[in-house]
Design a protein that fits this description.
This protein is an alpha/beta fold. 42% of the residues lie in helices and 19% in strands. α1 packs parallel to α5 and α7 packs parallel to α9.
Length: 242
Amino acid sequence: MTVWDKYWQKTKFDEDKQTISNLKNSHFWEDLRQEALAKFGSIKKLKIIELGSGRGEISLLFALEGANITLVDESQFALKEAKKLYHKFNCNVRLSRKDLFDLKKDNYDIALSFGLAEHFKNEKRAEIFKKHYDSVRKGGMIVLSVPNSNSFPYRLYKSLTTILGLWKYGVEIPYSEKELKKIAKGLKIESYKIYRSSFLNAFYHFLIINPLKLLGIKLKERFMGTKVLNKYGYALIFVGTK
């Protein structure tokens, strides 16, 4: 059983409505939604594929606005959880259990991933971007959210849990903006943006919520909309056009 099979099999998801509501009210989702609307005019009937999808929570927000969603993951447990989540929100979804590197070229409007590319080393870090690029049609959009190497709340939490033997996500190597720009240049993507997620969210999540969770104290996630110190936010979100 892989690291991710174990994760999806053991993790309990009992606050789906709150989780999706939090995502829907986040600046991250609003920025992504506006990018899609600016490019395509409407989200309804867009063909969207999410790679290494897990439960496909962000794609679910697109599905709720009428997009056609395909989720691809190697873990049968992840796809099982995805099926339950989409059913709960009365949304259709196509599920595909497949190795991402076996994917063929396709013509989706948008290819997405959230927390995927950082789990690869060496040349595969750029290759996973190419898999997104090859999955969309000319004029299509690729979106990859990856951990930010400048995010010291994330780096501190990861180091601590690794030392304590509590890190459960396997290999995870964050990206710098410099590396993202180099990958974009290699793929000849001239039109792209790199968004940064909220530093305050990273601080709250990695230095307050997660450490307290290790002690058995559970606090609610919060999404704080601010641009203060976002150079140190958890995520870099790459949005590019083919």
